[in-house]
Amino acid sequence: MSDDPTPAEGSNPDPRADAGDTDSKDLTHTTDEGDVQMVDVGDKPDSERRAVAAGEIRLQASTVEAIRDDQIGKGDVLATARVGAVQAVKHTWETIPMCHQIPITNVDTDFELGEDRVELEVAVETTGKTGCEMEALEGVTTGLNVVWDMVKAVEKDDNGQYPETGIENVRVLEKEKRRK
Fold it and tell me: Where's the Molybdopterin cofactor biosynthesis C (MoaC) domain (predicted)?
C-alpha cells in the first residue's frame, strides 16, 4: 500500500509533479512561457519507492510452445527479454525526455506463459526523490519488444506480416512510497 495520501479532486496525482505545492492549472513540466522543463525535485526528501507494471504479447499458440520448449532459433527468449527489460529500466531517463536519472536499487521480472501469450511483470525499486513507474513501464515494453524480436521469424505469415501478434494491456499495477 502507498503512503501517499489520496489526491484531492483536481490535483495532480503524478509523484514526479509533487515537487512543490501546485494548482491543478499549473503544468509542472512547462515554464510560464510554455517551454518544456524538467521538474525540480531537489528539495524533496528521499523515499523508498517501488512500482510494478505489467503487459503481455499475444502470439500464436505454436510460438508460445516453442518458447516453452526453448525451440526458438535466436536463443532463450525469456532470458534475453529479461536482460532487455533490466537494461531499459536502467536507461529510462535517456528515452523519456523529462524523466530524472534515478538510482535503481532492484529490478524483478516475472514471465508467465499462457496458451497464446507471454505476460511480463516488472517491479522496480529505488530510494530517491521521484517515483519509478516510468522505469517499470519501460521495462515491460522493452521486454515485450525483445520477445517480439526473438520470435518474429516464426510469427510472420506468408506475406511477412504479423496478423496474430500484438503487445497489449501495458499498465502500472501499483506504486508505493515510504518515507525514510
Answer: 38-177
